[in-house]
Design goal:
The chain is an alpha+beta fold. The protein has a domain of 58 residues. It is built from two helices and three strands, in the order βββαα. The chain has a three-stranded mixed sheet, with no helix packed on it. β2 and β3 form a beta hairpin. The chain is globular and about 40 Å long.
Length: 94
């Protein structure tokens, strides 16, 4: 088994783009349907970099969700802020 990738301040993993000014669904970043997903389930897998760290966000919207949910689903991601001065203490955090 290969060793896990270790994040550092200079990590250049191309899938982690800079944090967007506003999050939205990205068809190119959508994973394949998961076991048990009903037809019409929308998933968005969003890798991004913020505060010198890499993150993944996964947004899943069920097929019966009202239009309002689709419009509001990414809002919480837009409001989350990461403090670059606060760093986790586990070894792979950089």
């Amino acid at each position: 088994m290969p060793p896990p990738r270790v994040a550092t301040a200079s990590s250049k993993w191309p899938e982690f783009r800079p944090r967007p000014s506003s999050f939205e669904a990205e068809a190119a970043g959508s994973p394949q349907p998961a076991c048990g997903d009903r037809p019409g389930t929308e998933t968005s897998w969003l890798p991004f970099t913020d505060a010198g760290r890499h993150f993944y966000a996964l947004v899943v919207i069920g097929p019966d969700a009202p239009r309002r949910v689709h419009e509001e689903a990414f809002g919480p991601l837009d409001s989350v802020r990461f403090d670059p001065a606060v760093q986790p203490d586990w070894p792979s955090s950089g």
